[in-house]
Amino acid sequence: MKEERIVNRIRNGDEQAIDAVMRRYARLLWSVSEGVLRGVASSQDMEECVADAFIKLWLEPEKFDPARGSLRLWLCMVVRSRALDRYREIRRREEQPINEDILSRSLNLEDRLLLEESKDKLREALALLPEQDRDIFLRRYAFEQKPKEIAAALGLPVKQVKNRLYLAKEKLRRLMTNENGGTQ
To answer: DSSP string covering the chain, please?
Structure first.
């Protein structure tokens, strides 16, 4: 009931009510945004996602339905949605599908040389992965997110993220081996 009163106050243009909501949930919403955008976007992008959620609540308080869940959950879902949109937007703008600097720093010298020789083949192999598997793979190995962080960002169980990573690595290994003249 307290949340309904706060939202009703916001509907009536009470700035103190929205300020109270912002103070209460800003940290939580920041962590949701950061979980999706860490390593991909700037802190300003993360902050903008959080601000967008509060603006949505201020401008469209009727969109919150207490029968469907808590205000906290609703705000988290709005931020997560905004952050995923921002993530996709940033990815589309990137010229290269993989951040080679981050990836190569995590590989040893031998792997770096191999990577230099087969960048195009790697890109082609990554392009053959389903979009969600490619996203999970890049989050883990290019942006160094933990499976738990990836699961939270994508709304998937951790076990499913780990399984998809394993299968993606196996598929990439097969594709790269076959394309480089190796055996199955």
So the answer is: -HHHHHHHHHHTT-HHHHHHHHHHHHHHHHHHHHHHHTTTS-HHHHHHHHHHHHHHHHH-GGG--TTT--HHHHHHHHHHHHHHHHHHHHHHH-SSSS-HHHHHHTS-HHHHHHHHHTHHHHHHHHHHS-HHHHHHHHHHHTS---HHHHHHHHT--HHHHHHHHHHHHHHHHHHHHHHTT---
pLDDT in tens, 88-133: 888 877 654 455 555 444 445 445 554 555 666 777 788 888 888 8
Q: Tell me the domains of the chain and their CATH numbers.
A: 2-93 (1.10.1740.10), 100-179 (1.10.10.10)
